[in-house]
Queue: 4 jobs
Job 1
Amino acid sequence: MQYIPNPKNKIDEMLSVLGLSSLSDLFNDIPFEIRQKCVSVNDKPGESELEVRRHLEQLAQENWSAEDAPIFLGAGCYDHYIPAAVDYLLKRSEFSTSYTPYQPEISQGILQGIFEYQSLICRLTEMDVANASLYCGGSALAAACRIASEATKKRKVLLPTSLHPEYAQIVKSAGIADFYETVDVPIIDAASAVPSGVIDLNILDSILDEDTAAVVIPYPNFYGCLEPVGAIIEKVRAKTKALVIMSVDPFALALLKPPGQWGADIAVGDAQVLGNRMSFGGPHLGFMAVTEKLLRKIPGRLVGQTVDDRGNRSFVLTLQAREQHIRREKANSNICSNQALCALATSMYLALIGPDALKQAAEIAHRLTNYAKQRFQQAGFHLRYSAPVFREFAISLDRPTEANEFLLENGIIGGYELNDALLFALTEKRTREEVDELVDAMIEFSFPGKKTGEGAGENVK
Amino acid sequence: MMNIPQNLLYSKEHEWVRFEGNKAYIGISDYAQHHLGDIVFVDLPELGTEFDAMTEAAVVESVKAVSPVFCPVAGKVVEINAELLDSPEKVNEDPYASFLFAVETDGTGKDNLLSASDYTPLCEEE
Amino acid sequence: MKLLFEKDIHGSNSFSFPEPNIPDTVDVAIPEEFLRTSRLGIPELAEVETVRHYTALSKLAFGVDDGSYPLGSCTMKYSPKICESIAQLPGFADIHPYQSPLTVQGALKLLDELQEVLAQLTGTDRFTLQPAAGAHGELCGIMIVRAYHKSRGTDGQRRVVLVPDSAHGTNPATASAVGYQVRVVKSGQDGLVDLDDLKSKLGDDIAALMLTNPNTVGLFEKNILEISRLVHESGGLLYYDGANLNAIVGVARPGDMGFDVCHVNLHKTFATPHGGGGPGAGGVGVKEFLAPFLPSPTIERDEDGFYSFGTNLPESIGKIKTFYGNFGVCVKAYTYIRLLGYDGLRAVAQNSVLNANYLKKTLSEYYDIPFDVICKHEFVATNARQAKKGIRTLDIAKRLIDFGYHPPTIYFPLIVGEAMMFEPTETESKERLDELASAMKTIAEECENEPDRVKGAPYTTVIGRVDETLAARKPILKYTIE
């Protein structure tokens, strides 16, 4: 199957206008020895649309999707419900087949859509300024760390070990540029009693110094726990001029106090949870919102409101002089393409479900989480961490991998495997029955012979 | 016709300099503002920053261009024109009344500056 | 048009979720200090109003499906619809990145095969699909370059990345984002890298040269083998910016030109739609000696054909994106490649180049073409003839909108004053190109006879030219109640 509209006679006609006899004449400027190497590298023929569909459907069927089994995985990517109208509207090809809106006269739809997205992110986070999106939560955090090092002219970026491990890796990988160095801040994770699982304030206090550029606070953290945000920020402000970067789950902000209210300087995160399908990890979207003071430091595109020559309110890409296509090597980021369509999906999602249902979804997820926690505890399992959680929690286990395999045999996609625990996430899509199946299967795995649905009354570990 | 006041000195990079004792006021020339177009933002140095002669000290931005502003003489920043942060258009309106910053200088670099008559051909060549 | 926030009617949105049947004994309290006390500022709209809102917004946008989009350097080709429908299958769109490999063999197989075919098409040995966009691929590639120099102990000395003056802005921005200094190499009169200038800028402080080929004026750097020899002799690596791969896919390969690292924009050459600015995907290929530095994880296949993730990569640059990249975009590109096959991809290059040369030839009657030789997939024209009437490139671009076309890329590349860069792509027919040329001819005549008509364009759009200065001087970046 090809998508070239010109039949052979038209191609010949065009060649003759150019005074050429064959298509290969168009490539005579490429050295022959280069072209020759390319002649026989692959002879795979094209396929018809039906053949390709059959093949791809077969590949898709080799995967277990959230339609095939209840899924209790979270860890930065969540199986939330997406209203049907989101996918329906995203199919409008005026959105999907357009480029970055460089020509405002024929791009008001995209520009207004992004302006609304920026506004919605500002409202969720209660920060002053949001950009038009970045690649993912992790790369947004790395960008925030660079901003902090440049704004404070300091080098140390403090990363708690309760941060998503991939986010930490992304920040550390970007450190190759040497704009900052990272320092790990341990969490309270004593071996004996059930540790809290949040940043150890005493150790944080001993690490904070004048050279600190940023302190990252995951909210909630990787284990679902709520960090003592107020106390952390108080310590940071008392001892340093460092920026506070909150890496937040925007879904949680339906219930939780937003970063702007906590006094964060930068809020970043991944908005997959708001209207984007899991898609094996992408495309999702990173967001970034900052205080007014950092407006000129924010990377990526920004849409601003202005007027046209007829006096109409209109929207346009603005403050572009920060960006790579103008500032080149002095730009604060190299980002060009972002995740615009995902940002549009997030706006559509928020508009479609509205404030009440968003809050309801968060409450349902939270109640299911607490129900699951309670059932696990009643069955004799131990929480890995004791701090209050949102939508996610870890259960201590000796053999998390085997437990997950057992769950899979029972038709359940289990949790995220930690060394000595499984991390379970509960979205509003899960039901009480599914939670019961999960817990019952776990009881069967950990306490063979025990009747399900009742407490085991003994320690698992 | 470019406005090039006789009483100022100029750098080859189109900064103007006005000396008042050991203080030098620095801005961009009429030619520079004209070429940049509508200026939308100026980024000024922090007070107390020290610059060698002809090192980058500030930035002026138009909608689709960015230009560094060099500090034509060595010195320490003792004054900035904070009004421009809110009203960058003043640089377009009256570039010579709109200094960007001032340095306390021992005069290093002054010898390389041009008089108005030596500077004028530079604006015609480019 | 009203904003979402201006359509807010309290009580109009009745969306809800089923309440789970959970015993009252479950303690649900979140400690008070963590609770949001402010109102959640999301507008309330009935579903019909939201659907109408976005339908109306879509009508204020212009995509490839609306008409020709000859936006240079962006490869705005038609995106086959089968690719969209495949990517939406639950088996691809509703799988979690941390599922057991047992449950995602199809996804891993697809990624592995896509990596392999992209390596073949670019003449590289190993591929990663982690980067989310072209610029992200550049970042990944230059991080690999730096990790390579670190591993050899030459990082301290090799601090400079060379970039031609015709390069995309992402190239110098990428180099500095990885901590390099940028040194610019000049283009000659012919629009190609000036070899003497290159020689004068090479030295033992060079980490790499970043090059687009064909370059941004649409010309193939025919001295590429010499450039490659010079850069490698100096101890630097050669980076290929794959933004313009559409011109040569199936005809020539960066690896055979001497490039050590390259990125590929799946959303250009491999037809995945641009989505109003993303998501794209920017996979990176490397020669074998750079494979140890690829980002983590890699996809491994054992003797039984079982796929899993490889994480034992001591020299890897680490991670640059969460999970494995923009998988959904990769599904579309894989589908496209299967549809076309290798011959079909070669036909893409041939016809994109044919279309560009044909359009250039027809436009050259009315517009100046600074480099009027056989070009590749795109070419640059200017307003030089129209400038006499005070017409700027911007005016021509805006007027073209009135004829139903998306304008070309304007004011880029920087080495040509008042540039208009046309890239018609292979999915435009001769009839479409003739119509575009005819519109450009009419505009050229208007420039001559009624220049004010052109200067006042566009006339057919919902808004006129916007005040960009106001937008930048007094930024309004979100909705606030007046």
Job 2
Amino acid sequence: MSTLIYTTLELSLIGSLTVLGLYLSYITLNVCDLSTDGCFTLGATTAAVVALSGHPYLAIPAAMMSGILSGLVVSLLQTYFGVNSLLSGIIVNTALYSVNIAVMGNSSLLNLNKTKTIYSILKDLSKDTLFQSFSFLIIEAAIVALVIVFLNYFLKTRIGLAIRATGDNPIMVQASSIDPKITTIIALCISNSFTALSGCLLCLSQKSVNIDIGNGMVTIALASLLISRIFYKNSSTLKRLLYCVLGTLIFRSVYALALRMNMPAYMLKFVSALIVAITISIPYIRSKLPLYKRKAEIRRSSL
Amino acid sequence: MIQISNLTKVFNKGTINEKIAIDHLHLTINDSDFICIIGANGSGKSTLLNCLSGAMICEEGNIVMNGKNITLNSQDRRAHEIGYLFQDPMAGTAPHMSVEENLAMAFKNGSWLSRIKEKDRAFFKEKLKELDMGLEDKLKMEVGVLSGGMRQALTLVMNTLKKPSLLLLDEHTAALDPQSADKVLQLTKKTVEEKDLTCLMVTHNMQTALDLGNRLIMMHEGRIILDLNKEEKEKMSVEDLVRLFKKHAEKDLNNDRMLLL
């Protein structure tokens, strides 16, 4: 049971980085970035290769850099080459499959069992101390905290305001001196660097990476993001970012609970797809409900 | 000074729906000019403003502003010097951002990574106080909850925080209720006079066109058919303007009839 809680917490913290990335692209910029799956895997493969080559610390910035590059390609396609935003994500996602296999050196699986990573380093450091059993969680919580502090600061800077405005009112942005192309590029680069960071941490913590590590990640992250959105209302940016972590935790807990109740593990993606479909459609159906009721009343009275 | 020479804008070029919106138009806008533009629907008033703001790029001609040729510059580059107010009061502000965040975006003070400082906040408050709408107490409020009149007044402040070389107003009071429209119009007049702005205003209200500004232009079929200075304008009445308006419309009618015969 305690392993289950531990794993749930770990997966929530790691996954919340992707959710924070999507918060920037999907909620703030209002662009649905479908390259998330490939970018997540790219972060994982890059981190694995760099760690294997003997650079445990470099693995993290290298993974983030790979995410920035992937985000750059997606954003350039939609700003300077006229590709539809959904389509550019799908194109890059497809291309990244080949890139990821190439990064792993023509293999679809890498093992980091005996490789030195930040996880193994901290585990050795915390040996025989109080933190021994949850050294992994400390790394992840620290990184998530850093990302939240950064985003909370960044979204209130002038460039952050410009990115928010690009998602909020494109007409206004075009008539002000902000170039929406530049804001889109910056936002997608940052967003994808967090997605790649998320993949990097998952790979390092489970000590292996395979080509399917990011499959369905965009749906899982969107499900978590939409759960967190329920709490937003009029809350501040910092609270919203914290709700992103909470939303991921809720999603992962529900999933863990379902596993305890003997739901087969392969159902994860079905459940996440269901959550996304339901959370998006509920507000729409609710807004239409009064109309349906009135229609039914008219039909009844005319009978 | 802004010199517009030989400006031509054609919609749907090369198709049967081809329409010449602006037809080899010449116009010189002097510094501190406040020009009201009137004309029937489709006469090219809004297209002229769009060509100046960069929202549309003209097919022919040149636009020279303060000695620089800006004909092909993108909209965001021109926006450093050209302010623009839309007819839609919702179009000029970001609804899910607070009043101060909208103002900070327009103020463009400090580096890209700087945030709103107390000094900026005091400056915004002072500017909003001049509106006399109580907006100075709503700095943290989301703009989306404000009324159309307030949002348009805020857009006016945002566009004039730093003195623009040219301010374009595209029927910016047409979508407001009469009281708010009047308020925004008075604010516009006050701002333009106090800051000594150069301004182009499109309006459908003949009385407004006669009351405001120092020049009046009437457009028809993409050309300027009347350009009155302050003295000539003062002698005009709304009836005179309407008569001129109709005269040109009838001329077209007669031409059409001649074609049919």
Job 3
Amino acid sequence: MPEPRLEIEGLDGRYGTAHVLFGVSLTVGVGETVALLGRNGAGKSTLLKAIARVEVETTGAVRLQGQDLTRLMPHRVARLGVQLVPEDRRVLGSLTVQENLELGRHAAAPDRPAPSLDEVVSLFPTLAPLLGRRGRELSGGEQQLVAIARAMMGRPRLLLADEPSEGLAPAIVRQVGEVLSALRTQGDLSILLAEQNARFALDLCDRVYVIDGGRIVFGGRPEELRGERELERRYLAL
Amino acid sequence: MRAGGRWWAVALAVAVVAWAVAVPRLGLGQLALWEDVAIQVLFATSVNLLLGYANIPSFGQAAFYGAGAYTVALLAQSAWPPLAALAAAVAVAAALAFVTGLITSRVTGLAFSMVTLAIGQVLYTFVLQSNAAGGEGGISGVAPPARGLFDLTQPVHLWWFILLCVAVAMLALWWVVSSPFGRALTAIREDPKRAAFLGIAVRRYRVMAFTIAGGAAGLAGGLYAYSTTIVAPAVLNWTQSASPIMMALVGGMHTFLGPALGAVLITWLLYVLGQATRAYLLYVGVVLLAFVLLVPRGIVSIPDLLRRLAGGRRATGAAPEVTP
């Protein structure tokens, strides 16, 4: 197993008084793509937000290459190299695609200088003709690509992708899958991919966790999960 | 800047220069009016940096405008050169805004507006009671020394000086809103949470925006002191804070030139109606109401609205959809 980039130990998470994560432990290695599978409401998005320090109150340990993240503000976590691509994409409607992408530079750091716009657009060629278009004028698939590309502008160490295939047409899902596959070869980027679409995620990942009711119920290699018919039936609806 | 934008900028610059030359021919009364217009253009644009670009609804901007005005009035008594006095006005107002920004950085929404209003009123009351600031009567006879490139005792020179200062400040504000910092403010306005996990230090950026807007308001206040030659506590009152907000609403927030257009219209209307009737505020109120109801996106949206009207009539004959 590669050296751990993200380590989570005994993480509990709460939205106000609602307790939604229970003793979650997992790791993501350097350069590794890890899928986090589970049904709707299982706690996938909450876990990603807890790592990025957004909205969720937590107890337990979240470390990025040994550095504790649990007491940091969200922008500090981002500047350490953790980029969240949220479920709702959150492309800024009044800004152009280029301006949206350039905002991603704020997460860069001296040891991780921001890539040039051309460098990122070469990874997302579909965006090249859209650079001057406003965010609100984009389709759902285009917004998803912009959200991922914007995260890449901060040259992240860890990309947290929350259901990138959700609500997209099959052809666009394939395109997003190709982009994520290409990103796996980008340096030592680690990806934690939260998905309901197990088939989409299992084709992309090195390891997989299954979460249900805020608890990790499986951790292993994709082929091990494929053999667990009961798990697939109960938690993934495959 | 795109080619169309460059032509607009050139046309605007030519119009301003032409106006700078034309206004002195209209008489002293008109000079005072257009000095006020230029000053209010800067003040409204500074307020729009907060309201329109960063969604910071401050009701205390008169504090910084007034701080700039009083700084210039006090330094003029010691015959400070105008540029140095104005630089001091910017520094004092920006420092005051920085402290206010820090104090209010953890508060948002209506509570934020109320805190900024309260801080402004505290300063107003302090100046009202202060002997050094002239108390209720304020400081009169504010005049720059008659030396240097511009002899500001000459009304025409003063007009050109004010216009030049406003033009330079507007260019600086344009540079601010067009910079990565300005884009980050837009991101904060649209989605502060998203901005934070993109790596933008939301609170720090808000304080920086507050400081820059405060400094620009201070410059506007300093120019006001030279233009009117008298500074009274009323410049610090909350009504002074409301006026640039109305200008931004009428002209169009979220755009750079909208508040400037609103400032021109409202200041001119106040002058013209003030000359015609004692009930001028009533008529100005009606005009404001009409704008807010009929053109909610402000003057800048009128060409778009007319295009939609014409297009809608040509296509279907039906009433066009107006985006609020």
Job 4
Amino acid sequence: MNNTKDILTQKKHVISLKVSNKPGVLIRIALVFSRRGYNIDSLVVSESQDPRFSMMSITASGDPDTLHLILAQLNKLVDVVHAQDYTDSDILQKELGLIKISCSAEQRNQALQIAQVFKAKTIDVGQESLIFEISGQSEKLDAFQKVLVPFGILEVVRSGKLLMARGLEST
Amino acid sequence: MSTQVRTAADVLIDILIEQGVEYIFGHPGGAAIPIYDALVGRPIQLVLTRHEQGATHMADGYARASGKTGVVLVTSGPGATNTVTGLLTALMDSVPLVVITGQTNTRNLGLDAFQEADVSGITYPVVKHSYLVKNPLDLPRIVREAFYIASSGRPGPVLIDIPKDVSSAALVRDTRESFHLPGYNPTNHIDTNSVREAADLIRQSRQPVLLVGHGAIIANASENLRKFAELLRVPVVNTLLGKGAFPESHELSLGMLGMHGTGYANKAMVETDLIINFGSRFDDRIVGNYATFGKRAKKIHCDIDAAELNKVVPVDVAINGDAAEGLRLLIEHFQDPGKRPDTGPWLRQIKRWRREMPLKYKKEGKLRAQHVLDEFYKLTQGRAIVTTDVGQHQMWAAQFLLTENPRDWISSGGAGTMGFGLPSAIGAQLARPGELVVAVVGDGGFQMTMSELATACVLKIPIKILIINNRYLGMVRQWQNLFYEDRLSGVDLEGSPDFVKLAEAYGMKGFRIRRPADVRRILQSALEYHEGPCIIDAEVEKHDNVFPMIPAGASLEQILLGPPRKKMDKPTGST
């Protein structure tokens, strides 16, 4: 019963971090989330333009009332330069996905038409399969994935959300 | 210093000396030998402990008593894992420690080498920050960074894990590399708007309470606290770790609040219209029930750690910064006497509560822990550094040993670590030689770290170890008695040694108190004994419970001033 309630009140949060590019940083950050019972849904880490720092984009779900605590605790870490919540705010969000479907020769045209509508690239064509590459908002990837279900999805790999603040503001 | 090539370990010791380190508390082992070797003939005294946990608590007691950073040096594997309890204790209570652990050679990391443990991995949740040094050239910068991080902002333990090949590598001289920590800004400036808003709330208040915690002691805010409280005539309550921030014998002090705080302090917290919190984190021991806590009151909270503001208790005004600075800015708003709130009727009301709900105990019949502590307080007139273990004796000590000065009360609050009392007293005495130090311990906690008696004896550290011996794990027994129909489980400490004989086995002096009539005389003899450490075994009534008590998770209104007349439900709070 409690679990059902927890799941219902959970919300997806989009958090961007600038962190020191050092071993152990990821564990310290992950511990902040796990200690409060947050699940990390996606995580992207890459070196920033300055190799001393990395940029991290995290999508996590959990109790919205404790999000401010998570941010405060992330910002408290010595290796975190800043952590910011971008949930519901105007920021560029992109994701890359690779989707492999099962597809016979007869079905191929139909699948390719759908891909065209979603502006997905076809990057591999096999006798019985197709692989698409799609990028855009996560919701677009979700929708594309959904219409491909009838073909039979064999594999999906998604990059997780990439975030960047608009204009001169830094992420 | 060895005559051979200088090593990274030699440079490490140079930097410890530069940082003002007087003592290192530790226990050696294979991976730490190069560092122990570098200590030979250097002007830092090594305190060899009997267990690594003891070393961390000694460094902790040293740090709390002095305000300086405590230093621990242990070996890899089990040596390092034995520090985990001490790290947690220091983290929970914001104590600056630098814990140096030896580690297996870098090429063996992660290969299950002898005495290898993933010390970073094991300790992430219990440190303020930590380092694994892979390159000897990084060591000087890391050590300076560690001391800076441990002692600045909200202090805490920092761990440096040094592989043996790194500590023994040749390092001709200190790199003098400066450090740059863009993610760490401990000295933020207080937003003066928040202080102005706080001053407005105070002016509107008729029944304010000043709540002071450990943060006020760490910030050296005592002088400003006193100025503020006396200027505005605000009553003061303190947390367990806030004891000494404001003199508990002061007419404005209501003593400790919370689970085993005074009836009048807790009553004031229920009736207040404004809680002015400097340096307490609204811990569950003082809040009881978060849903009902201070519901009639506005709240001001000053904390140097932004993550503590609005963490568990939503506040009206949050002041992020140092407690001493926050108070200084706040006092400026009340220079005009016409702008101060009139607290006269409120103070008269509190005086009545103080008369109605005094702390009390029986001096007749069986020997009571409270009697021993009360007498000790009277004999020393509060001039003692007191360390404690955790449990009933700790709460009685907090109630009856009023603390006058900051850094005179040293107790494991957040972590509630049994076994803390003896080693922390050793550290405190080293920090402040010449002052009276007493470890008030229970017969349970004492036996967890009593191996450190050897450390105290070797160094002839003249601490008094006052064992409140009720032959039970008394606090758990109290809960079982009150809330679990007296179904006692796992609390009988049968088989404990004769503590006076134990003292003799170590070549120490032992005293025993059995009868109320002897309390004063025996305590007096123990206080007059100066040859080294001594044990005072006070065999007290077995079945006494600590009151007042607010059952865990209950509202402050539900305080029990004495034994309850009816059967109690199990508490809703976790511990």
